[in-house]
Amino acid sequence: MSFLQFYVWGAWLITIGTYCIEGRGWSFPEFGAVFSTLAISSLIMPAIVGVIADKWMNAERLYGLLHIFYGVILFFVPSVADPGVLYYYILAAMLCYMPTISLANSVSFNILKTNNFDVVKVFPPIRVWGTIGFIVAMWVTNLTGSKANGDQFYIAAVVAILLGIYSFTLPKCPPQRSMSADSSWLEMLGLKAFKLFANYKMALFFIFSMFLGGALQLTNMYGDVYLDSFKEIPAYADSFVVKYSTIVMSISQVSETLFILAIPFFLKKFGIKKVMIFSMIAWVLRFALFAYGNPADGLWMILLSCVIYGMAFDFFNISGSLFVETSTDASIRSSAQGVFVMMTNGFGAYLGTIVSSWAINEFFILSNGSTDWKGAWSAFAVYALIIAVLFTLLFKHKHNPEEIKEVHH
Hints:
Layout: H1 2-10, H2 16-23, H3 28-35, H4 37-55, H5 59-76, H6 83-114, H7 119-143, H8 151-167, H9 185-188, H10 200-216, H11 218-228, H12 240-243, H13 245-249, H14 251-270, H15 272-292, H16 299-327, H17 333-363, H18 373-394, H19 401-408
Helix pairs in contact: 1-7, 1-8, 2-11, 3-6, 3-17, 4-6, 4-17, 5-6, 5-8, 7-14, 10-17, 10-18, 14-15, 14-16, 14-19, 15-16, 15-18, 16-17
């Protein structure tokens, strides 16, 4: 389940930019609007689907139905010729897909607990198969020559429907938590945690989460398009990077699995604030190395950028959720985690998607119609650097090793 959960996303997430911009010839703002559907659905659906699974329907059945709907919608995507229409198709697909990420976790936890497994010990190796699924899907899309055409959506659609059917064979996960009749919609949707914004330190943390969330999707959006664009330079046209751009990008996901293992050591030694600063500096390097790399003598920069991605992504996401865990009251902890995800993958990702696509179109399209990627990646690096400096100066947090130990246990 974990393998297929991310396979059906990885088949097109990294290459939809190449499909829209190179394959269809659409503008950056048109593509940016389509990609923003990920953020919109992250804001809307997980909480609503969570309430349905908590109150009315078995989680594994809801999970299966959503994947089948997702797969069916993806089948129609290659036939769409208008970016305005594609926006609604991808939005519909994402409204089905995004809540399945948290549902997959719920189903996994339920099955493991029912069978008396140690969730803390057993779940991480299961979740790693999700990242492996994402990587394998990227490789399949690249090696079948599907990164600039609609076949990537067929690859995802067939597997999503199979996953949906398979889900009905999983152990039953009936509704767990029942809300009382007088529970408010604020409680049901986990919005009570918004009162945390009254706390200066938490408000500052969530605001920085949003700004950094704007950077999280930039290489997912443009990485493959950027590497593929080197084919316009004759010296690089037949290079490994151009032919296998999606496979090169998959190094980022491999790195992610390795950096997860390093987090406990870094947190214990340096503390949450420094680890988050390391993440922000890693984002600066991620973008700067892309700006100055090339498929020949600058190949090491492109590869190093992909390796650094693991630190940039994991150190912020995981240490950020740990900060929320140690800084909030138990009664609203789950809701607070929801706010963290909402600020990064929702508001932050939406703003980052829309503003970055507008900025590239406005400032980094050259007179011959090609894209000034060096300028664009450099601008993103400066953005990440400003966030890192402001966070270092404004965010006050004293390292307490015992805090990490408590959460770890």
